[in-house]
Amino acid sequence: MDPTRTSRERTVRGLYDAYLQGRKDIAAEMLTEDFTFSSPRDDHIDRTTYFDRCWPEPVPFRDMEIEYLEIVDDDAVVRYRAEKHDGGAFRNMEVLHFRADRIASVDVYFGRNDKSISRKSDRAKVVYENKE
């Protein structure tokens, strides 16, 4: 397996783990100094604003499950499902762009709220049951 791809996959997974732990210090080491973050609510905010706005305390999620991760050249595409402490859940897609071994930018695409299906295995069960 390609060592760069493996390293970047570890970095992506590590970023989501750091988020769940509220460890800005770990995440900061993964980002370039000129890192930018974009979403439907944020237009190319810098890393200081990203940590202030997107890393609330306490951490709002009890779990984030990476459902899809693909690394192509300098980009990682991620679909994840986040579960909130209040029981709500949603899915988002993100494109993380690498420069060397660090993440230079993240673009987030909001998905739908998803209270009805709790886990990947449950989704498969629902699909199967609906086909009967």
- Trace the largest sheet across and list its strands: 2-1-6-5-4-3
Radius of gyration of CA atoms, rounded to a whole number? 16 Å
What's the end-to-end separation, in Å?
40 Å
The major β-sheet equals: 6 strands, mixed
Structural class: alpha+beta
How much helical structure, as a percent, in the residues? 25-40%
Beta-strand percentage range: 35-45%
Spell out the helices and strands N to C.
HHEEHEEEEH
Question: Which whole number gives the mean pLDDT?
Answer: 88
* Principal-axis shape: globular
Describe this structure in words.
- The chain has 132 residues and is α+β, with helices and mostly antiparallel strands.
- The chain has helices at residues 3-21, 24-30, 47-54, 120-131, and strands spanning 31-38, 45-46, 61-72, 75-84, 89-99, 102-113.
- The protein has a 6-stranded mixed β-sheet with strand order 2-1-6-5-4-3.
- A hairpin with a 4-residue loop joins strand 4 (75-84) and strand 5 (89-99).
- The longest helix has 19 residues, at 3-21.
- The radius of gyration is 16 Å and the shape is globular.
- The N and C termini lie far apart (40 Å).
